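User: Hey, my collaborator sent me this sequence without any context and asked if I could get a structure. I don't really work with proteins. Can you help?
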Amino acid sequence: MIFGFKRRGASRYNLERYVYLKGRHKIIFVGGVHGVGKTTLCASLCSKFGIEHYSASSFISKIKQVKFSSKRTSDIERNQDILITALDEFTGYDKYFLLDGHFVLIDNKDNIIRIPYSTYAAMSPAAIVLLNDTPEAIFLRLKERDKEKITVEQLRALQEEEIGYSKEVASALAIPYLLTNPLTEIELISDFVDKLLAEGGVK
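Assistant: No problem. I've predicted the 3D structure and written it out in structure-token form, which is a compact way to encode the shape of the chain:
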């Protein structure tokens, strides 16, 4: 089955917090579908640059005190409100850090849902690194790692929406954006992050 598509409006809570949070956190947002390699890449960048790495899903799990076991998600908008609260509670304001997460998610009815733009406006990332790979390669990783079934066609649709929407978010926020493959372009990614840190006075 191919996923359906739905677009939801902005969360009122996040919009209210936008002015409060804007410019405070120095986030390099690392996005991409499940299985594309976000965790592995972030570990490599943390080792190289000495910066912290956080996961959006881990923050949400910590606040809700639940463990997510499925790629299909309910209560998407409320979870993003929780994420903004967690960023305020658990991260600092003076150092750059990596935050891995998504731009689209799958709901319990197999619809692809865009995370509200207000979430990204509220967190105000310094830059976006969007990871991609062939759907076939991602499928094989997920097949070995997870019990949940997802087809190559579903992954293709999910990744296309993730890429398209992430570009829209970066354009709206007027921030640097890199679309890249974490397996074949690690030097390009490192140079991108290195430049961000240098411009931010970290180096």
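In plain terms: The longest helix spans residues 152-173. You can pass these tokens on to your collaborator as they are.
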